[in-house]
Amino acid sequence: MIKLLIRITAAFLAFIALIIAAVVLTPPRAFSHPAGQLSDTELLDGYRHTEVASVSDALEKLTGRRMYLSHHMQPIFTSKFAGFALTVKLKKEENKDPDALGGMLAAIDQGGPNSVYVMVVEDGADIAGMGGLMGTAMQARNFSGAVIDGGVRDTAYLRKIGFPVFALGEVPSTSVGHYRFAAANVPMICDGVSVSPGDIVTADSDGVVIVPRANAAEVLTTAQDMDFKEHSMYAYIEKLKSIEEAVKKFGRL
Questions:
Q1: Domain tally for the chain?
Q2: Residue 115 lies inside a defined structural domain of this protein
Q3: For residue 248, what is the enclosing H or E element?
Q4: Are 142 and 116 in contact (CB under 8 A)?
Q5: Among 196, 217, 200, which residue's Cα sits nearest to residue 39?
Q6: DSSP label of 30
Q7: Is the pLDDT of residue 132 over 90?
Q8: CB 90 within 8 A of CB 128
Q9: Looking at residue 27, what DSSP letter applies?
C-alpha cells in the first residue's frame, strides 16, 4: 500500500513539473495591433513618409479605383502633407446676405489638428475659395493643409506663413456676394474624386490622393511595400544598367 502511494505521489509530482516547465519555457507573445487597426497618429505618420504615387498605385491595386485628383490641382508651393478630410461645399448664388458664407467660417473654427480643409466651389475655377485670412485660421488650428476645387488668392502671404494649399489656380476674385455655404462634413466630389469626412488626404509634389478611411491601413501597408521596392531599385538599376532586370527582381514599375 505504501509503495502504491509513493508511486502515485511521484507521478503527480512529475505531472506538476511538466506543467511548470511548459509555462516557463513558452516564450511570451509580442503585443501587436490587430490586423488593419492603427491609431490615427500611426496612420498619418505612415502616410507622411510614403510617396503619394505609391499610395495611388496601392489604392488602384487593392480597390480598382483611381483616387487621385487631376493635373489641374496644383500646389502654391512644393509641399507634402497628410490629414483627415474636413469637407465644405459652396453653391453659386448671387446674394447680398452678409451671412451667406457663415457656415464656411464655422467649419474652419470647428476643425483641429491634422484636418485637411477640402472645399468644392461650384463652377469655381476662377473664384477664390480661400485666401490669407482663412489660411491663417487653419494654420493657427494646426490644420495639415487645404485642397480647393476652385481658386486660391493671397498666395504670397500663404507662402510666407508656409501653409500648404492645392487649388485649380491662383486668382484675385472673391466668393463673397457670389456664393452661399451649402454644407460641411458631407460626402462630395472633389475634382472628380469622391471624398468623405475623415478620409485621408495625402499630397506631395506629384499631386493629391484621397484614401477612404475604411481602406487606410491596408493601403498604407501596400504603399509602404511599393515604396521600399522602388527605392531599392535605384541602386540596382545603376549597378546593372538595366531597368528590365530590376523590374524582374522587384516586380515594381
A1: 1
A2: yes
A3: helix 243-250
A4: no
A5: 217
A6: P
A7: yes
A8: no
A9: P
